[in-house]
Every structure is written in structure tokens, then in C-alpha cells.
Design goal:
The chain has helices at 2-6, 8-23, 28-59, 65-87, 95-119, 126-147, 153-182. By secondary structure, the protein is mainly alpha-helical.
Length: 197
């Protein structure tokens, strides 16, 4: 249970990518408002977790401005997300762009977590960094394709991209499970980016 709570941010992102990716093969427009609200809630959780880590690091005499900045930005976006969701009436034209932005934000968080772990001298898995970069690149691709007015098949493409990101996160976790089994028993990794217990 303790390991689950420590790894909650990445687990939430993984589940989000997996579930939404599958759902986009159905009635994409109908679920977009719900997806935005759920993602807003996830961002708030991630922001609170990052803030807690920042406070803990500060109490230990360490300074991490990046963690503080990302935590505040995530909480602000998380609170604004439900408001935006109900202000927008028609998602048929901008829905894909919203999913692209969500993918980019998720990628920035993953990379930020990777960097934080590196600074803390915690063993990291570069597959996690690759997942973050993929999230940003694929999110940008979705936004560009929507700007070029690609047809309805873009929803399916977006769903596939989210499933690809989920697969990358799962691969990262599997790699760390194998690494943990080979690591000394006294090693104490902190996040899914470092271990999966």
C-alpha cells in the first residue's frame, strides 16, 4: 500500500492513457467533457504530490524550483479544467486539440519526474524519459493534424497514440520490476520511474 501511494501519480497517468485511449474508439465527442474533468482531478493530485515532495526536499536543505513551479501550474490547470469543460459547447472542432494538449502536459510531468529523480541521485529508467518525450511529440502531432483539418479518423489516431503511451509506461514499469529483482535488497526506490513493487 505504501508503494502504491508513492507511485500514485504515474499509475494515474497510465490508467488515464489506457482507459481514454480505448474509449476514443467509441463516441469521442460524448466523453470529452468527462475526460477533461477527470484529467483536471488528476492534475490536482499530481500538483499536491509534487508540492509535498518540494516541501520535504526543502526541509532536507534541498531546493527544487522546478517541482514547485510544476506543482502550482498543475493545480491551477486542474482547477480550471472543469470550468473550461463546461464553457465549451461543441467539441467536434477542438476536441482533438484538447487531447493533444493533455498528452503534452502529461509528457512534461513525466520528464519533470525523471529529472527530479536524477537530481535526487535516485536510479532512473530511461524508458520513462522516452515515454515523456513520446507523449509531447505525439500530442504535438495530434494538434498539428487537427490544425490541418484532418477528418474524423483523427479520433482513432489519438486513441492509438494514447495506447502507445500507456504501452511505453507499462514497459518502463516492467523494466524496473526486473531491475528491482536484481538490485540489492537495501535499495529503496521512490517512484514507478525507479521501481514497481
Amino acid at each position: 500500500m505504501r508503494s502504491l501511494m508513492k507511485n500514485l501519480p504515474i499509475i494515474l497517468l497510465l490508467l488515464f492513457e489506457l482507459v481514454v485511449g480505448i474509449m476514443l474508439f467509441g463516441q469521442a465527442n460524448d466523453i470529452t467533457r468527462i475526460v477533461i474533468c477527470v484529467f483536471g482531478g488528476i492534475l490536482i493530485v499530481l500538483g499536491v504530490v509534487n508540492m509535498a515532495r518540494y516541501v520535504k526536499a526543502k526541509n532536507n536543505g534541498e531546493s527544487n524550483a522546478f517541482a514547485l513551479t510544476t506543482s502550482v501550474v498543475m493545480m491551477v490547470i486542474g482547477v480550471a479544467a472543469p470550468i473550461i469543460a463546461f464553457v465549451i459547447r461543441d467539441y467536434s472542432k477542438i476536441g482533438a486539440i484538447i487531447y493533444g494538449v493533455i498528452m503534452v502536459i502529461a509528457g512534461v510531468f513525466k520528464i519533470g519526474l525523471f529529472i527530479d529523480n536524477r537530481k535526487a541521485l535516485v536510479p532512473v529508467n530511461f524508458m520513462h524519459m522516452i515515454s515523456g518525450l513520446l507523449s509531447i511529440v505525439l500530442g504535438a502531432v495530434v494538434i498539428v493534424l487537427r490544425a490541418l483539418k484532418i477528418g474524423d479518423s483523427l479520433w482513432i489516431f489519438t486513441g492509438i497514440m494514447l495506447l502507445v503511451l500507456a504501452a511505453a509506461d507499462i514497459a518502463s514499469i516492467v523494466i524496473n520490476i526486473v531491475r528491482k529483482k536484481k538490485a540489492p535488497k537495501d535499495q529503496k526506490p521512490e517512484t514507478v520511474a525507479d521501481s514497481a513493487e
